[in-house]
Design brief:
single chain; 296 residues; alpha/beta; Rossmann fold; six-stranded parallel β-sheet; two-stranded parallel ribbon; 9 helices; 12 strands
Length: 296
Protein backbone atom coordinates (compact mmCIF):
# COMPACT_ATOMS: atom_id res chain seq x y z
CA UNK A 1 0.00 0.00 0.00
CA UNK A 2 1.28 3.46 -0.94
CA UNK A 3 0.55 6.07 1.73
CA UNK A 4 1.15 9.80 1.35
CA UNK A 5 1.42 11.62 4.67
CA UNK A 6 1.49 15.40 5.00
CA UNK A 7 4.47 16.72 6.90
CA UNK A 8 8.10 15.70 7.00
CA UNK A 9 9.40 15.93 10.55
CA UNK A 10 6.52 15.56 13.02
CA UNK A 11 6.38 12.75 15.55
CA UNK A 12 3.53 10.91 13.84
CA UNK A 13 5.05 11.35 10.38
CA UNK A 14 8.44 10.04 11.52
CA UNK A 15 6.80 7.10 13.29
CA UNK A 16 4.73 6.31 10.19
CA UNK A 17 7.84 6.25 8.03
CA UNK A 18 9.48 3.81 10.44
CA UNK A 19 6.51 1.56 11.12
CA UNK A 20 5.33 1.55 7.52
CA UNK A 21 8.70 0.27 6.36
CA UNK A 22 8.58 -2.53 8.94
CA UNK A 23 5.29 -3.90 7.58
CA UNK A 24 6.11 -3.32 3.93
CA UNK A 25 4.11 -0.19 3.09
CA UNK A 26 5.50 2.61 0.94
CA UNK A 27 5.08 5.76 3.04
CA UNK A 28 5.88 9.07 1.36
CA UNK A 29 6.27 12.20 3.50
CA UNK A 30 5.20 15.41 1.77
CA UNK A 31 6.04 18.80 3.22
CA UNK A 32 7.31 22.23 2.36
CA UNK A 33 8.04 23.49 -0.20
CA UNK A 34 6.22 20.99 -2.43
CA UNK A 35 3.23 20.74 -0.06
CA UNK A 36 2.54 23.76 2.13
CA UNK A 37 -0.70 23.84 4.12
CA UNK A 38 -0.43 27.62 4.31
CA UNK A 39 -0.66 27.63 0.49
CA UNK A 40 -3.54 25.25 -0.35
CA UNK A 41 -2.75 25.52 -4.07
CA UNK A 42 0.27 23.27 -3.53
CA UNK A 43 -1.68 20.44 -1.88
CA UNK A 44 -3.49 18.87 -4.83
CA UNK A 45 -0.46 19.12 -7.06
CA UNK A 46 1.80 17.36 -4.54
CA UNK A 47 -0.70 14.61 -3.77
CA UNK A 48 -1.44 13.99 -7.46
CA UNK A 49 2.28 13.56 -8.07
CA UNK A 50 2.54 11.08 -5.20
CA UNK A 51 -0.42 9.01 -6.51
CA UNK A 52 -1.13 7.31 -3.15
CA UNK A 53 -3.64 4.63 -2.21
CA UNK A 54 -4.35 6.44 1.09
CA UNK A 55 -3.68 9.97 2.34
CA UNK A 56 -2.81 10.70 5.98
CA UNK A 57 -3.29 14.33 7.01
CA UNK A 58 -0.77 14.70 9.83
CA UNK A 59 0.90 18.06 9.25
CA UNK A 60 -0.42 20.82 11.50
CA UNK A 61 0.30 24.00 13.40
CA UNK A 62 1.00 22.53 16.87
CA UNK A 63 2.42 25.43 18.92
CA UNK A 64 -0.43 25.48 21.45
CA UNK A 65 0.62 28.59 23.37
CA UNK A 66 1.93 30.52 20.36
CA UNK A 67 -1.40 29.94 18.62
CA UNK A 68 -2.99 32.38 21.05
CA UNK A 69 -1.08 35.20 19.33
CA UNK A 70 -1.12 33.58 15.87
CA UNK A 71 -4.72 32.45 15.71
CA UNK A 72 -5.13 33.37 12.04
CA UNK A 73 -2.07 31.37 11.01
CA UNK A 74 -3.15 28.37 13.10
CA UNK A 75 -6.60 28.49 11.52
CA UNK A 76 -5.16 28.83 8.02
CA UNK A 77 -2.96 25.74 8.45
CA UNK A 78 -5.19 23.55 10.60
CA UNK A 79 -8.51 24.63 9.09
CA UNK A 80 -8.05 25.69 5.47
CA UNK A 81 -5.07 23.35 5.11
CA UNK A 82 -7.11 20.36 6.25
CA UNK A 83 -9.85 21.42 3.83
CA UNK A 84 -7.33 21.43 0.97
CA UNK A 85 -6.04 17.95 1.87
CA UNK A 86 -9.57 16.56 2.09
CA UNK A 87 -10.47 18.14 -1.25
CA UNK A 88 -7.38 16.64 -2.87
CA UNK A 89 -8.09 13.17 -1.46
CA UNK A 90 -11.63 13.38 -2.79
CA UNK A 91 -10.39 14.40 -6.25
CA UNK A 92 -7.99 11.45 -6.22
CA UNK A 93 -10.74 9.14 -4.96
CA UNK A 94 -8.63 7.67 -2.17
CA UNK A 95 -9.35 7.29 1.57
CA UNK A 96 -8.22 10.03 3.94
CA UNK A 97 -7.12 9.74 7.57
CA UNK A 98 -7.04 13.08 9.37
CA UNK A 99 -5.22 13.42 12.71
CA UNK A 100 -6.91 15.60 15.32
CA UNK A 101 -6.63 16.18 19.06
CA UNK A 102 -8.19 16.09 22.51
CA UNK A 103 -8.00 19.91 22.52
CA UNK A 104 -11.33 20.04 20.65
CA UNK A 105 -12.93 19.44 24.09
CA UNK A 106 -13.03 21.84 27.04
CA UNK A 107 -11.89 19.21 29.55
CA UNK A 108 -14.73 19.83 32.01
CA UNK A 109 -16.30 16.36 32.00
CA UNK A 110 -15.57 13.88 34.80
CA UNK A 111 -15.24 10.86 32.48
CA UNK A 112 -13.41 10.00 29.25
CA UNK A 113 -14.84 11.80 26.24
CA UNK A 114 -16.91 9.98 23.64
CA UNK A 115 -16.88 10.90 19.97
CA UNK A 116 -20.50 12.01 20.35
CA UNK A 117 -19.79 14.47 23.16
CA UNK A 118 -20.14 18.18 22.34
CA UNK A 119 -16.88 19.89 21.43
CA UNK A 120 -15.83 23.17 23.00
CA UNK A 121 -12.18 24.15 22.57
CA UNK A 122 -10.84 26.67 25.05
CA UNK A 123 -8.02 28.08 22.92
CA UNK A 124 -6.97 29.03 19.41
CA UNK A 125 -5.14 25.77 18.74
CA UNK A 126 -8.13 23.61 19.68
CA UNK A 127 -10.45 25.86 17.69
CA UNK A 128 -8.24 25.54 14.62
CA UNK A 129 -8.12 21.76 14.90
CA UNK A 130 -11.88 21.59 15.32
CA UNK A 131 -12.22 23.69 12.16
CA UNK A 132 -10.04 21.13 10.40
CA UNK A 133 -12.23 18.25 11.58
CA UNK A 134 -15.33 20.05 10.40
CA UNK A 135 -13.79 20.83 7.02
CA UNK A 136 -12.85 17.19 6.48
CA UNK A 137 -16.33 16.04 7.46
CA UNK A 138 -17.99 18.61 5.18
CA UNK A 139 -15.78 18.00 2.16
CA UNK A 140 -15.22 14.24 2.31
CA UNK A 141 -17.24 12.51 5.03
CA UNK A 142 -17.85 9.51 2.77
CA UNK A 143 -14.14 8.80 2.39
CA UNK A 144 -12.45 9.91 5.59
CA UNK A 145 -11.69 8.89 9.16
CA UNK A 146 -10.75 11.52 11.74
CA UNK A 147 -8.53 10.14 14.51
CA UNK A 148 -8.28 12.16 17.71
CA UNK A 149 -5.05 11.47 19.59
CA UNK A 150 -3.61 12.98 22.78
CA UNK A 151 -0.46 13.55 24.83
CA UNK A 152 1.81 12.33 22.03
CA UNK A 153 5.42 11.41 22.76
CA UNK A 154 8.08 9.40 20.93
CA UNK A 155 11.82 9.01 20.40
CA UNK A 156 11.52 11.80 17.79
CA UNK A 157 11.24 15.57 17.91
CA UNK A 158 10.26 17.66 20.92
CA UNK A 159 7.88 16.14 23.47
CA UNK A 160 7.18 15.80 27.18
CA UNK A 161 9.30 12.67 27.69
CA UNK A 162 12.39 14.23 26.17
CA UNK A 163 11.83 17.45 28.11
CA UNK A 164 11.60 15.58 31.41
CA UNK A 165 14.79 13.62 30.71
CA UNK A 166 16.62 16.82 29.78
CA UNK A 167 15.48 18.53 32.99
CA UNK A 168 16.44 15.50 35.09
CA UNK A 169 19.98 15.73 33.78
CA UNK A 170 20.36 19.15 35.42
CA UNK A 171 18.25 19.06 38.59
CA UNK A 172 17.13 16.77 41.40
CA UNK A 173 13.48 17.91 41.48
CA UNK A 174 11.06 18.88 38.73
CA UNK A 175 7.71 20.64 39.31
CA UNK A 176 4.95 19.08 37.18
CA UNK A 177 1.22 19.80 36.92
CA UNK A 178 -0.85 17.17 38.75
CA UNK A 179 -4.43 18.34 38.11
CA UNK A 180 -4.60 17.61 34.37
CA UNK A 181 -5.22 13.99 33.34
CA UNK A 182 -5.03 12.24 30.00
CA UNK A 183 -3.81 9.24 28.02
CA UNK A 184 -0.07 9.44 27.26
CA UNK A 185 0.28 7.90 23.79
CA UNK A 186 3.37 6.84 21.86
CA UNK A 187 3.55 8.05 18.26
CA UNK A 188 4.87 4.59 17.37
CA UNK A 189 1.58 3.08 18.53
CA UNK A 190 -0.38 5.82 16.80
CA UNK A 191 1.43 4.93 13.57
CA UNK A 192 0.51 1.27 13.97
CA UNK A 193 -3.11 2.26 14.53
CA UNK A 194 -3.12 4.52 11.48
CA UNK A 195 -1.78 1.70 9.32
CA UNK A 196 -4.56 -0.61 10.50
CA UNK A 197 -7.22 2.01 9.81
CA UNK A 198 -5.67 2.72 6.40
CA UNK A 199 -5.87 -0.94 5.45
CA UNK A 200 -9.50 -1.12 6.56
CA UNK A 201 -10.47 1.98 4.56
CA UNK A 202 -8.65 0.76 1.46
CA UNK A 203 -10.31 -2.64 1.60
CA UNK A 204 -13.90 -1.66 2.40
CA UNK A 205 -16.43 1.05 1.55
CA UNK A 206 -18.33 0.37 4.77
CA UNK A 207 -19.59 3.75 6.07
CA UNK A 208 -19.08 2.53 9.65
CA UNK A 209 -15.32 2.72 9.06
CA UNK A 210 -15.60 6.44 8.31
CA UNK A 211 -16.28 9.24 10.74
CA UNK A 212 -14.62 10.41 13.95
CA UNK A 213 -12.71 8.04 16.25
CA UNK A 214 -10.67 8.39 19.43
CA UNK A 215 -7.33 6.58 19.40
CA UNK A 216 -5.11 6.78 22.47
CA UNK A 217 -3.16 4.38 24.64
CA UNK A 218 -4.90 2.40 27.36
CA UNK A 219 -4.57 3.80 30.86
CA UNK A 220 -4.52 7.33 32.21
CA UNK A 221 -2.24 9.57 34.24
CA UNK A 222 -1.69 13.13 35.33
CA UNK A 223 1.34 14.94 33.96
CA UNK A 224 3.00 14.46 37.34
CA UNK A 225 2.30 10.72 37.29
CA UNK A 226 3.57 10.56 33.73
CA UNK A 227 6.78 12.31 34.78
CA UNK A 228 7.22 9.89 37.70
CA UNK A 229 6.93 6.96 35.30
CA UNK A 230 9.40 8.56 32.89
CA UNK A 231 12.00 8.97 35.63
CA UNK A 232 11.43 5.42 36.90
CA UNK A 233 11.89 4.00 33.41
CA UNK A 234 14.97 6.14 32.82
CA UNK A 235 16.54 5.09 36.13
CA UNK A 236 15.91 1.47 35.20
CA UNK A 237 17.97 1.98 32.07
CA UNK A 238 20.75 3.86 33.85
CA UNK A 239 19.54 7.27 32.68
CA UNK A 240 18.79 10.56 34.44
CA UNK A 241 15.96 10.81 36.94
CA UNK A 242 14.54 13.28 39.43
CA UNK A 243 11.84 13.53 42.05
CA UNK A 244 8.54 15.07 41.02
CA UNK A 245 6.97 17.99 42.88
CA UNK A 246 3.23 18.00 42.05
CA UNK A 247 1.84 21.47 41.35
CA UNK A 248 -1.50 22.85 40.15
CA UNK A 249 -2.36 24.36 36.80
CA UNK A 250 -2.65 27.71 38.58
CA UNK A 251 0.97 27.36 39.69
CA UNK A 252 2.11 27.08 36.07
CA UNK A 253 0.17 29.64 34.00
CA UNK A 254 0.37 29.42 30.20
CA UNK A 255 -1.09 31.57 27.41
CA UNK A 256 -3.39 28.71 26.34
CA UNK A 257 -5.76 26.92 28.70
CA UNK A 258 -5.13 23.17 28.81
CA UNK A 259 -8.05 20.74 29.26
CA UNK A 260 -8.16 19.45 32.84
CA UNK A 261 -9.53 16.17 31.50
CA UNK A 262 -8.06 14.96 28.20
CA UNK A 263 -9.11 11.33 28.54
CA UNK A 264 -10.64 9.85 25.39
CA UNK A 265 -12.88 6.77 25.27
CA UNK A 266 -11.53 4.49 22.53
CA UNK A 267 -14.26 1.85 22.50
CA UNK A 268 -15.54 2.85 19.05
CA UNK A 269 -12.28 2.37 17.18
CA UNK A 270 -11.68 -0.89 19.03
CA UNK A 271 -15.02 -2.37 17.98
CA UNK A 272 -15.16 -0.84 14.49
CA UNK A 273 -11.56 -0.97 13.27
CA UNK A 274 -10.14 -3.59 15.63
CA UNK A 275 -7.52 -1.09 16.84
CA UNK A 276 -6.42 -1.29 20.48
CA UNK A 277 -3.28 0.60 21.44
CA UNK A 278 -1.06 -0.81 24.22
CA UNK A 279 -1.02 0.46 27.79
CA UNK A 280 0.94 3.69 28.03
CA UNK A 281 3.36 2.35 30.63
CA UNK A 282 4.65 -0.46 28.44
CA UNK A 283 4.87 1.89 25.47
CA UNK A 284 6.82 4.37 27.59
CA UNK A 285 9.39 1.70 28.45
CA UNK A 286 10.01 1.17 24.74
CA UNK A 287 10.49 4.87 24.05
CA UNK A 288 12.73 5.54 27.05
CA UNK A 289 14.85 2.49 26.21
CA UNK A 290 15.38 3.82 22.71
CA UNK A 291 16.21 7.29 23.96
CA UNK A 292 18.82 5.92 26.35
CA UNK A 293 20.36 3.84 23.55
CA UNK A 294 20.31 6.75 21.10
CA UNK A 295 19.72 10.12 22.81
CA UNK A 296 19.79 12.03 19.51
Amino acid sequence: MKIAVTGKSGQVVTALLERGAVVGHDVIALGRPELDLADPRTVLRALQAAAPDVVVSAAAYTAVDKAESEADLALAINGAGADAVATAAKVLGVPLIHISTDYVFDGARDRPYLESDPTGPTGAYGASKLAGEQAVQKVYSEGSAVLRVAWVYSPFGANFVKTMLRLAADRDEVSVVADQIGNPTSALDIADGILMVAANLAESDDPALRGIFHMTAHGEASWAEFADAIFAASAGHGGPYASVKPITTADYPTPATRPANSRLDCSLIETTHGVTLPDWRSALETVVSRLQADPD
